[in-house]
């Protein structure tokens, strides 16, 4: 999942992440109980209003679930839509946690039969198996152009349909009746149940989505909802208001009545809002870390997200691997996390973060090796630069543009990297800081030289950090291509020998790091402050920034 430069949320990245992650680009800036009064007048304290106020990093780029690719959009979609499965409060998927009350799996691990519960859309219509079949085939329709269509390639016939070599009828997902959905996979896929909670797999009510077409998800009245909340108000570029969904199947376990999301990009504005009580949670900016880190309201959480330089390999300059290596090795990652982030984040010298399980449940990072290059290797960076220039027939680099987000903290971090390149390589780089949605669009179109990007795990497997770099993958906006790499990923996807599969993924990561279409910078954790009256505020290790289904307010009016 593409993540926004929301780096002030970071702190100590724990090496052992949660044992179970489920299956994206990143953003760089996360029952009411009455209280009695013992006063002899028998006055009763005011009941806590179930309203949560949060900052939100930017305008969500796309709330069409089959087209969304970024964490801001998935933050919203996770609260307003349920899939077949939903991760519970313990980060587990169990029968009945989502719209499927149960499922059966064939002995060969290929056929899943899901049995849906009785549930309704927010418009009162029943949620059916046909809604899932329609949504999944819509995601695979080549005319839609979903960047995440490849997440359904585990299904028999899905890749063929999406690539124009097959038809929708060949896709092995079928509604047997209104409450029964049958899916047949190409090969056993251990992470498949996790994927059924992911955004691209979320259901659509066919009649509603056919009515609004390209405007699906653009405004509250152009969506229907199957999750805990609905979008009540969306003032674009300003705020989003979520309200409890009265038709939600599990509404008795949803306590919050309203969630106010205020779009904020400036750190000082965010801090001031927290101090005045206008918001109830805040990712701690690095410049305020000392102020908050020893307070009772301070929390940290490791998340499975990597941040990296992404090079446009179609660029006349960055098509050269040695130039890419020069820009990567010239960075002092330890200094960056110590002096810029100031939060204990871990320098990254590989693509897959620590804590992701490899063969036999052991840490993939330990099995593959801790890293593939030396941090702050300035001399090697200079040598690579000279070699690359010679190969390109140049004596010096043209103007290089470095794309990033436009929040105050993103600009600060980009400037730090810019200065390292100037000091260590003697290279002047121009910054191009734009809104998150604009940055994603520029990446998709290849309108950049280098971009500061992030990727969060969609599921608990190294594949979530590796298959996106295959040739032609919808999320491969580096436009990287290596046939040997493609072959290893393809083989790993259908390999039933888990040890051999793991070895193939290790080999693939080595190729990726040798070619270096991305230059790893750090692995992320999240540091935030939260008001003590906000209870059961969950920060997942993967996927969205928060899970609010079970959150409630208690003790605010003491």
Summarize the structure.
27% of the residues lie in helices and 19% in strands.
Describe the 3D structure.
With 558 residues, this protein is of the alpha+beta class. It folds into two domains: 253 residues, Periplasmic binding protein-like II (D-Maltodextrin-Binding Protein, domain 2, 3-Layer(aba) Sandwich), CATH 3.40.190; 224 residues, Dipeptide-binding Protein, domain 3 (Roll), CATH 3.10.105. Helices cover 27% and strands 19% of the residues. Strands 1, 2, 11, 12, 13, 14, 15, 16 and 17 form a nine-stranded mixed beta sheet that branches. The chain has a four-stranded mixed beta sheet with strand order 3-10-9-8, covered by helices on one side. Strands 4-5-7-6 form a four-stranded antiparallel beta sheet, with helices on one face. About 6% of the residues have low confidence.
Task: State the distance separating the first and last CA atoms.
Answer: 40 Å
Shape: globular
Number of strands: 19
* Helix content bin: 25-40%
Uncertain segments:
6-23, 30-44
Question: Would you spell out the secondary-structure blueprint of this structure?
Answer:
Layout: E1 2-4, E2 26-27, E3 51-56, H1 71-80, E4 100-105, E5 111-116, H2 129-140, H3 158-162, E6 173-177, E7 180-184, H4 192-195, H5 206-212, E8 229-235, E9 239-244, E10 258-263, H6 267-275, E11 281-283, H7 289-292, E12 298-311, H8 321-329, H9 333-341, E13 346-347, H10 364-368, H11 378-392, E14 400-405, H12 408-425, E15 429-434, H13 436-445, E16 450-456, H14 463-466, H15 483-493, H16 498-515, E17 518-530, E18 534-535, E19 552-553
Parallel strand pairs: 1-2, 3-10, 14-15, 14-16
Antiparallel strand pairs: 1-16, 4-5, 5-7, 6-7, 8-9, 9-10, 11-17, 12-16, 12-17, 13-17, 18-19
């Amino acid at each position: 999942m593409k993540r926004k430069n929301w780096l002030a949320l970071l702190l100590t990245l724990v090496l052992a992440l949660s044992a179970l992650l489920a299956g994206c680009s990143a953003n760089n800036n996360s029952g009411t109980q009455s209280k009695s009064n013992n006063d002899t007048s028998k006055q009763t304290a005011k009941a806590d209003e179930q309203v949560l106020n949060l900052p939100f990093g930017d305008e969500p780029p796309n709330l069409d679930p089959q087209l969304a690719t970024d964490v801001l959009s998935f933050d919203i979609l996770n609260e307003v839509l349920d899939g077949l499965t939903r991760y519970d409060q313990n980060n587990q998927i169990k029968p009945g946690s989502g719209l499927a009350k149960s499922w059966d799996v064939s002995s060969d691990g290929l056929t899943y039969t899901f049995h849906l519960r009785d549930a309704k859309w927010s418009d009162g219509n029943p949620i059916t198996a046909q809604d899932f079949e329609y949504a999944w085939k819509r995601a695979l329709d080549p005319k839609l152009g979903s960047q995440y269509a490849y997440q359904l390639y585990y299904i028999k016939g899905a890749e063929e349909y999406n690539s124009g070599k097959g038809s929708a009828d060949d896709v092995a997902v079928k509604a047997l009746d209104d409450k029964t959905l049958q899916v047949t996979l190409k090969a056993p896929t251990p992470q498949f149940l996790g994927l059924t909670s992911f955004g691209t797999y979320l259901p659509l009510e066919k009649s509603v989505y056919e009515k609004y077409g390209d405007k699906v998800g653009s405004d509250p009245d152009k969506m229907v909802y199957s999750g805990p909340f609905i979008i009540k108000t969306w003032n674009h570029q300003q705020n989003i208001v979520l309200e409890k969904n009265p038709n939600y199947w599990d509404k008795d376990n949803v306590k919050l009545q309203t969630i106010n999301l205020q779009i904020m990009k400036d750190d000082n504005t965010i801090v001031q809002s927290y101090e005045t009580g206008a918001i109830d949670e805040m990712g701690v900016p690095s410049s305020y870390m000392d102020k908050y880190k020893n307070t009772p309201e301070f929390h940290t959480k490791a998340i499975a997200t990597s941040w990296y330089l992404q090079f446009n390999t179609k660029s006349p300059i960055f098509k050269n691997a040695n130039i890419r290596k020069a820009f990567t090795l010239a960075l002092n990652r330890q200094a960056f996390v110590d002096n810029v982030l100031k939060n204990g984040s871990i320098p990254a010298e590989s693509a897959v973060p620590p804590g992701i399980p490899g063969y036999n449940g052991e840490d993939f990072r330990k099995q593959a090796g801790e890293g593939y290059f030396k941090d702050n290797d300035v001399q090697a960076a200079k040598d690579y630069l000279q070699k690359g220039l010679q190969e390109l027939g140049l004596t010096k680099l043209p103007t290089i543009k470095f794309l990033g987000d436009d929040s105050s903290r993103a600009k600060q971090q980009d400037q730090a990297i810019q200065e390292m390149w100037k000091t260590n390589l003697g290279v002047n780089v121009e910054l191009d800081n734009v809104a998150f949605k604009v940055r994603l669009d520029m990446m998709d179109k290849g309108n950049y030289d280098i971009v500061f990007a992030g990727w969060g795990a969609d599921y608990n497997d190294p594949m979530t950090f590796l298959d996106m770099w295959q040739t032609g993958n919808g999320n491969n906006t580096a436009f990287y291509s290596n046939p040997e790499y493609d072959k290893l990923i393809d083989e790993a996807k259908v390999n039933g020998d888990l040890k051999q599969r793991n070895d193939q993924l290790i080999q693939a990561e080595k190729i990726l790091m040798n070619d270096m279409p991305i230059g790893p910078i750090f692995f992320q954790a999240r540091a935030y402050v939260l008001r003590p009256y906000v209870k059961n505020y969950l920060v997942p290790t993967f996927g969205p920034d928060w899970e609010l289904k079970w959150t409630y307010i208690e003790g605010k009016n003491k």
